[in-house]
Specification:
With 368 residues, this protein is an alpha+beta fold. It has two domains: 3-221, Rossmann fold (3-Layer(aba) Sandwich); 237-367, OB fold (Dihydrolipoamide Acetyltransferase, E2P) (Beta Barrel). It has eight helices and 21 strands. It has helices spanning 37-45, 93-99, 113-120, 135-147, 165-181, 193-199, 217-221, 332-338, and strands spanning 3-11, 14-22, 26-30, 52-57, 60-64, 69-70, 78-81, 153-157, 186-190, 202-207, 210-216, 236-247, 252-257, 260-265, 274-280, 284-287, 298-308, 314-321, 324-331, 345-350, 361-362. The strands form four sheets. It has a six-stranded mixed sheet, sandwiched between helices. A five-stranded antiparallel sheet has the order 2-1-4-5-6, with helices on one face. β12 and β13 (252-257) form a beta hairpin. α2 packs parallel to α4 (135-147). The longest helix has 17 residues, at 165-181. The structure holds adenosine-5'-triphosphate (ATP). Adenosine-5'-triphosphate is lined by residues 11-12, 14, 31, 33-39. Residues 11-12, 14, 31, 33-39 line the site of adenosine-5'-triphosphate (ATP). It holds the Pfam family TOBE. Residues 2-233 form the ABC transporter domain. Keywords: ATP-binding, Cell inner membrane, Cell membrane, Membrane, Molybdenum, Nucleotide-binding, Translocase, Transport.
């Protein structure tokens, strides 16, 4: 277990009572404003002292109120990356990066400077002052500074929230590399389902100070009702696929997933690249028979594994498509008229343009 949190804390009229464990390399904390995400991050980092409970990071107990253990902030070895990078304006990038090390005892400094610079692609920025960097570059430097302090855990509290979509897209691949090659587990606070679909290996969903769900990213994202606040059907399945080939004449790429081949708008990655793809529940329709004469390019056969009926007009139908878990959001009327029940074989139909390009990320093969 990388992270174990079981705390109770009151502040103002707000009661946080959060309990979860995560073994994921990137754990996303997701929930509406005021649900307690930052309070949890601050409790892990030592900025908030919870009244009751226990926090364990990489088998090290940071807080245990029953045992009277409270490791002070500066002894925790927790890295922080804030929404605005908080770099020192009077120091160049190299000195900003090295600043991270000053608080780490010499014998514990194991992170290699050049490796971090390379991982984050900031070698060409070393002599520059923060005021001359773009928002995305500043965040990459802030991440590097936190990493060079040799943390046991990296806390990122909405690190991309102040960036526009283009800057976010520029920084995602670096966070993916950090997740897959950085060797430091990450806790990321995010409001965006697309962002966590792309980056998270584990997800903790919070609501009003309580954990409403936690588990692996593919498992949690399939339950669309957990993400109701982000839009009626923002959630969907995460599947792992590889780039099979490109059809340049049509501007398309064919991916291979366990569920079958998937045709998507062209992705500029070489054949063989592993990717995670988010298939939103609202973009999938179901058919009892293999359709013919249909313009949609993706038709995946599968079995209904369960039906999530939360009482509203739409229902989430969980599918097992040769080992890939998909979810389709259909009307309650369709469930009844088509006679959809667990065990029935169906065809999932997805338009190729329905893939969420924002959520298309690379994935380490052992991830999913
Ligand atoms: N120092 C404090 N004193 C009193 N109440 C506080 C304090 N800090 C936060 N709160 C309250 O605790 C609740 C949880 O806040 P928190 O910042 O953890 O939420 P959040 O999920 O991170 O929200 P956001 O997404 O808006 O950042 C809120 O109701 C907030 O008003």
């Amino acid at each position: 277990m990388i992270l174990g949190v079981d705390i109770r804390h009151e502040q103002g009229g707000f009661v946080l009572q959060a309990r979860f464990q995560s073994g994921g390399r990137l754990t996303a904390l997701f929930g509406p404003s005021g649900s307690g995400k930052t309070t949890i991050v601050n409790a892990i980092g030592g900025l908030v002292r919870p009244e009751h409970g226990r926090i364990v990071v990489q088998d090290r107990v940071l807080i245990d109120t029953e045992m009277d253990v409270f490791v002070p902030k500066h002894r925790r070895r927790i890295g922080y990356v804030f929404q605005e990078g908080r770099l020192f304006p009077h120091l160049d990038v190299r000195r900003n990066l090295l600043f991270g090390r000053w608080f780490t005892p010499r014998r514990e400094r194991t992170t290699n400077f050049d490796h971090v610079v390379d991982l984050l692609g900031i070698g060409h920025l070393l002599a520059r002052r923060p005021s001359t960097l773009s928002g995305g570059e500043k965040q990459r430097v802030a991440i590097g500074r936190a990493l060079l302090a040799d943390p046991q855990l990296l806390l990122m509290d909405e690190p991309l929230a102040s960036l526009d979509e283009a800057r976010k897209a520029e920084i995602y691949p670096y966070i993916e590399r950090l997740r897959d090659e950085g060797g430091v587990p990450i806790v990321l606070v995010s409001h965006s389902v697309a962002e966590i679909a792309r980056l998270a290996t584990s997800i903790v969903v919070l609501s009003e100070g309580r954990v409403t769900a936690s588990g692996s990213a593919p498992e949690i994202l399939r339950h669309t009702n957990l993400f109701a606040q982000a839009g009626p059907a923002e959630a969907g399945a995460l599947v792992e696929a590889r780039v099979l080939r490109h059809e340049d004449g049509y501007g398309l790429t064919i991916l291979q997933a366990k569920a079958g081949p998937l045709t998507v708008p062209r992705i500029d990655r070489p054949a063989g690249t592993p990717l995670r793809v988010r298939l939103r529940a609202r973009d999938i329709i179901l058919s009892l028979h293999r359709p013919e004469g249909l313009s949609a390019l993706n038709v995946l056969p599968g079995l209904i594994s369960s039906i999530d009926d939360t009482g509203g007009p739409s229902v989430d139908v969980m599918l097992d498509c040769h080992g890939d878990g998909l979810v389709a959001r259909v009307t309650r009327k369709s469930v009844s008229e088509l006679g959809l029940v667990p065990g029935l074989s169906v065809h999932a139909i997805i338009k190729s343009i329905a893939f969420d390009p924002e959520a298309l990320g690379t994935v380490a093969p052992q991830d999913m």
